Amino acid sequence: MKCLIIDVVSPAIAEELGKYMEVDTKILPTQEELASMIGDYEVLIMRVDPAINKTILDAAKKLKVIGVCSVGLNHIDMDTAKANGIQVFNAPGLNGNAVAELTISKMLELARHTVPACNDVKMYKHWDKYKFMGQELRGKNLGVLGFGRIGQRVGELARAFKMEVVAYDPYLPAEVFEQQHAKSMTIDEVLKVSDFVTIHMPLNDETRHLFNAHSISEMKTGAVVLNMARGGIVNEQDMCDALKSGKIGGYASDVMEKELADGGLTEGAGFDSPLFECDNFIVSPHLGAQTIDAARDIGAHIIDKVKEALDL
């Protein structure tokens, strides 16, 4: 039996599964490369890249299990996987705290301008505190779009800063909002009342470019937007225009719409965005789940699910 690992995951996965099977690693192969090699493996361990399409799954003649060390499954052709008898396991909720803490971190950075202030001191040797008047989170309205595990944890942390939490999630019963001390609202209502808006929704036909020129125009002037979900939810050109005009006070993102363009995560890859021209935009390279704590918890979960599926 053989296992193929195609992303950087907890080393415990290779160590434990290596007791039962041969384990190979090929970090971030292209779809074509993966399709050409997958036929030899019973187990595939991955995160979100590359997207697993029908061509790959049809080439995976021996494949029994796909262990996804992340939450979303929209990058896998689940219909074909099911038809081919391939079990797919993800790790829901296990990176939730890591993503929530990153959200709060970026919220504070934008509120206090710590990134440009740091650059001003280190790069330009300026020591001018008067350039960076910020604001406190205390007393501000935080709008959470997508109030699942991550969104609820963000709300919990925000309440420690004395923020008022409003949230949108059409799939939750009223009692969840009550338990989380959050007020349930529509998307339009959240955008109109929030000083900070944080996105924790999947990317689909309903959410693609949810933040566009029209929806942004309905927001408070100077509001801050945070996106730790998927880049395609925000129209980057429209957000750039709003940042330059002052309509939006800041945009922090862990994701980009074309983050995998020209190879994305591979060595030497590059891409561009109009947002890079905006001083009040801060970004990180999709590192929301990149903590040793989340990797440990996700690794243990995936090991258990693979062993259970294969009766090891």
How are the SSEs placed, and which strands pair?
Layout: E1 2-5, H1 11-17, E2 22-25, H2 31-37, E3 43-46, H3 54-59, E4 65-68, H4 78-83, E5 87-89, H5 96-112, H6 114-124, E6 141-145, H7 149-160, E7 164-168, H8 174-179, E8 183-184, H9 187-193, E9 196-199, H10 213-217, E10 223-227, H11 236-245, E11 248-253, E12 281-283, H12 292-310
Helix pairs in contact: 1-12, 5-7
How would you describe this structure to a colleague?
- By secondary structure, this protein is an alpha/beta fold.
- It is built from 12 helices and 12 strands.
Number of strands: 12
- Strand coverage percent: 15-25%
Mean pLDDT: 94
Radius of gyration: 21 Å
The secondary-structure element order is: EHEHEHEHEHHEHEHEHEHEHEEH
Our count of helices gives 12
| Major β-sheet strand ordering | 8-7-6-9-10-11-12
Characterize the biggest β-sheet.
7 strands, parallel
Instruction: Sum up the overall morphology in one term.
Output: globular
Span from first to last CA? 11 Å
Helix proportion of residues, in percent?
25-40%
- Helix/strand-derived category reads alpha/beta
Low-confidence blocks of residues: none
Question: Which terms summarize this structure?
Answer:
single chain, alpha/beta, 312 residues
Short characterization:
By secondary structure, this protein is α/β, with parallel strands linked by helices. The chain is built from twelve helices and twelve strands.
